[in-house]
Design brief:
Number of helices: 13
CATH class of the largest domain: Alpha Beta
Protein name: SWIM zinc finger domain-containing protein
CATH architecture of the largest domain: Roll
InterPro entries: Znf_SWIM
Largest sheet: 9 strands, antiparallel
Number of domains: 4
Distance between the termini: 35 Å
Keywords: Metal-binding, Zinc, Zinc-finger
Domain SWIM-type: 400-438
Strand order of the largest sheet: 4-10-6-7-8-19-18-17-13
Pfam family, one: SWIM
Structural class: alpha+beta
């Protein structure tokens, strides 16, 4: 179910004589100002912001008329991050502006929505040259007492699915490793060779010298590329990029389709697109976070870990575990729980988590996951009977056999497992078994 948030902007975003004036909403204060300064590569920054906004307006699976959805911006010490999901939630876009990308200071920290309206998109498309571009995230002269006199309100049926997507993406990408690095010229040639936007095939990219070679079958070291046309948003930044880096999980011969991240690096900013395993699959339904959310201790752990987050550009899990007095695995589970509330994300380039805050009810994590709700009901009903690494779960009039695998995963005799083979997260029966196993451990 989508949640409808009301976003308030003091006035529309615009490209003015003094620079780029991005109006924001929400955060720790109404229309907060996170940053005021110059972007050192204005044309690249404009292209990257346009790409993030374009992904937010696009529905790659069963395309429809563009929506008007507002990207999320986070300011944290020496980093600005702009994020969005596609309308189908199958593409996650992020632009990270690193210290080399701005001449100014991040004067605050927080997360908010940015108004990227049609006039601003048209103005950004005309940005060129080498003159620095001034960026003010929020108006300089905002005062709470006068804000209501000139407010713009917009209702966006967005955050519910995006929040579930944020939770899933950060769990999935935390298991990624760098798989290839391709120079800009070869990257441009590779992207030009890709099938068009209507192609929904699942391909695999294999490092081949200074470029990538496409194949129809997975192999060790390959990166999944499902719906290659979904990488179109990278093309606007290609002329500014130095390298294309590709990230993905470990695959082997016969592996099913998996997500992947494709990142252009200009030296001053990074634009990345994370693709779902198949074009019709949205990240909001992947179920990767379910096992982490199933533990009885995870909510208490998340409260403790959340209180220790400090807006560092990269969260040090080992240091956080030491400060919290928890083992690493419980800290990572707590970060997964915090991710369902939008409080953390994962950056594959830094190989670390980062801190953000969104106006979202953390309790939705349970309500938004019917499998999690169903599993807790089964446990409360005493429906799980364990037998070593096996268990029988009584659900309705049926008995289902659940077996725990050596890698910590599960198999089940239910229809969900037969259909998805574990590729969309555990079924409710496996979740129930994991909950009972934790209690009796």
């Amino acid at each position: 179910m989508n949640a409808v948030q009301t976003y308030r902007y003091l006035q529309p975003s615009a490209l003015r004589t003094a620079g780029l004036d991005l109006q924001t909403s929400g955060g720790p204060a109404a229309n907060p100002r996170f940053f005021s300064g110059f972007l050192t590569t204005p044309a690249a920054a404009a292209a990257g912001l346009l790409a993030v906004a374009e992904v937010a307006r696009t529905r790659y699976h069963q395309p429809v008329s563009p929506a008007s959805l507002d990207p999320v911006v986070t300011g944290s010490r020496n980093r600005l991050r702009f994020e969005s999901f596609s309308g189908c939630c199958g593409v996650y876009a992020r632009m990270d502006v690193v210290p080399a990308g701005f001449d100014g200071e991040v004067v605050g920290h927080g997360t908010t929505n940015v108004d990227v309206n049609p006039p601003l998109r048209e103005a950004l498309a005309r940005v060129g040259g080498i003159e620095p571009l001034h960026l003010a995230v929020g108006p300089d002269d905002l005062t709470v007492s006068t804000m209501e006199a000139a407010v713009v309100e917009r209702k966006v049926p967005l955050p519910g699915r995006w929040m579930r997507g944020f939770a899933e993406v950060h769990v999935l990408t935390a298991g990624f490793e760098p798989r290839a690095e391709v120079p800009a010229a070869e990257a441009a040639a590779f992207l030009r060779r890709l099938p068009g936007g209507s192609d929904r095939s699942v391909l695999w990219a294999v490092p081949a010298g200074r470029t990538l070679r496409l194949t129809s079958r997975p192999a060790p070291g390959a990166v999944c590329l499902a719906g290659a046309g979904r990488l179109a948003a990278l093309r606007g930044l290609l002329r500014h990029a130095r390298t294309l880096r590709v990230y993905g999980p470990t695959v082997r011969t016969g592996s099913p389709a998996v997500p992947s991240t494709w990142e252009l690096d200009t030296g001053s900013l990074r634009l990345s697109l994370t693709l779902s395993p198949e074009p019709y699959r949205g990240f909001s339904g992947e179920g990767a976070a379910l096992l982490a959310l199933a533990g009885d201790e995870v909510i208490d752990d998340a409260e403790l870990v959340g209180a220790l987050l400090s807006w560092d550009p990269t969260i040090d899990v080992v240091a956080l575990a030491e400060a919290a007095g928890l083992p690493d695995d419980r800290v990572r589970a707590a970060l997964a729980q915090l991710g369902t509330a939008g409080r953390v994300g994962y950056d594959v380039a830094d190989a670390g988590y980062f801190h953000r805050v969104m106006p979202h009810d953390a309790g939705r994590a349970e309500r938004d996951n019917p499998r999690l709700v169903g599993a807790r009901t089964l446990v409360e009903q005493g429906a799980v009977r364990r037998d070593g690494d096996h268990a029988t779960v009584r659900s309705g009039d049926e008995d289902y056999r659940v077996r725990r695998l050596p890698d910590g995963g599960f198999t089940c005799t239910c229809r969900w497992w037969a259909k998805h083979q574990g590729q969309r997260g555990p079924c409710k029966h496996a979740l129930a078994v994991s909950m009972v196993a934790e209690v009796t451990a």
